[in-house]
């Protein structure tokens, strides 16, 4: 038998080396897999056990949508009796998602027949309901650029939105908002002011001054949403309710305000004046019952108004008061004891003061024999200067300041001017006398009315106020703070001036202001009107008074700027006073005077 082949050329048998490498590689891979499994298991334990709550909260936060504001309803502005002058009403903006708008839209008639479908059907139905051009609606529904938000219509009523929603157009939603509305149109428009386009921020008048009280506090809501942004039914949600703003109650009497505005507008047209202001104050409280202007503004459309008409001229515009401020000179002279109502004077048409300055009356006359009451009744400049010379510069200035000249009243309106009252040391040789009859000093209409309210209130000055208080959403009322009154002159002096003012109406320049059955005290004013060039152009005509003079209740001031058809205060301002005061007395139920006036003789 042949033996094994031991040929020296044969290769000996060896183990397969590739198998060893495969085994090692398999063990290495297994080790890596096990290590990864350990890591994953550890991470899983960390996520599901150790950090479970934090991870869940982060996931929920990722699913929660952005905060959506819940707008607070702005508080109302009310008149003294609670009638609404300004309010916020709910409105809706119609929004489209152009990515899905009108998908699958169909509308059937009562017989089940499809009468509108697809994009064009949705466009036609939406345009018809919203009263918009179909081209504009189509553009909103097909807006490009990947946008998912497009405005279809703004500021529609909730009722109209309900009809739009009932169409069931895919991708159509709404966003709530509030719109500010003023039911009276231009009624008290210069007082109420206006808000921004969204009706949420006061930009003028009471709306601006009382913005913090009216605005309220917005809330918000967030809901859990899916990957495509859809709300998850029964998902988590967060909601903080908005807090409505407080109502603001004014001292304004709506009906008296309307009457004052109507008469101001009529006289402005009749007299061809630049503007007319009418102020009505309640004696004793300082409540502003009316603050009327012509021209005025409708806050519902303030954007188209003349910028010069925005705001209240009664507090922001100054004028030289003229003879209406002679009551300050009269009160100062009586209070200082330098004159009595029946003191006798020879009053010429022209008069030369001690320093050589010459003055004249508004109309030519022969030498007149007048009492001091007659000087006021006839509104004599020369007679007023003769009496005023008995007061020092400091006394003249001091009484003007006491009556409120040169300082703001503090009325709750923006833009109030303090007027212009130069220091006594700054008066030149002429101005020291012209201030005695209302030239060389400037006031606003509210300041001028406050002077007469002080006399009517037995010499106590009470700052005028427009805001009576606020009312919280729960009905809690907060009366406004009332600054204390300040005595300016004694009751005796106030009564003497009041009797002299009755003579102005009964037997002087103010007879057009007389009201049958009532004793009326007041004063005319006709002053040259300063212009922008440093000179004078035209006149400021005015009448200010109160009634019943025996028991004063209401002060009315009428200012007519640069009338061109008549210019004396007794011609153009006194008739407006009569109409507004007559209405005020009747509406308030103020009884007629029980006794006739006991007037001072005006001549001797």
Summarize the structure.
The chain is α+β, with helices and mostly antiparallel strands and 604 residues long.
Helix/strand-derived class? Answer: alpha+beta
Contiguous uncertain segments of 5+ residues: none
Kindly provide the name of the CATH class of the largest domain.
Alpha Beta
Number of domains: 2
* % residues in beta strands: 15-25%
Oligomer: single chain
Largest sheet: 7 strands, mixed
> If classified by CATH, what would the architecture of the largest domain be?
3-Layer(aba) Sandwich
| Large-scale geometry | elongated
- The Rg value, from CA coordinates, equals 41 Å
Number of helices: 19
Which fold name fills CATH's third level, the topology of the largest domain? Beta-lactamase
Q: How would you name the CATH homologous superfamily of the largest domain?
A: DD-peptidase/beta-lactamase superfamily
Secondary structure: number of strands: 25
Could you please describe the fold and organization of this structure?
It is a single chain. The chain has 2 domains: 69-103 and 117-137 and 149-220 and 237-250, Penicillin-binding protein 2a (Domain 2) (Alpha-Beta Complex), CATH 3.90.1310.10; 254-588, Beta-lactamase (3-Layer(aba) Sandwich), CATH 3.40.710.10. The longest helix is centred in the first third of the chain and has 34 residues, at 17-50. The chain has 604 residues and is of the alpha+beta class. The strands form 8 sheets. Strands 2, 3, 6, 7, 12, 20 and 21 form a 7-stranded mixed beta sheet that branches. A 5-stranded antiparallel beta sheet has the order 14-13-25-24-23, with helices on both faces. Strands 1-10-11 form a 3-stranded antiparallel beta sheet, with no helix packed on it. The chain has 19 helices and 25 strands.
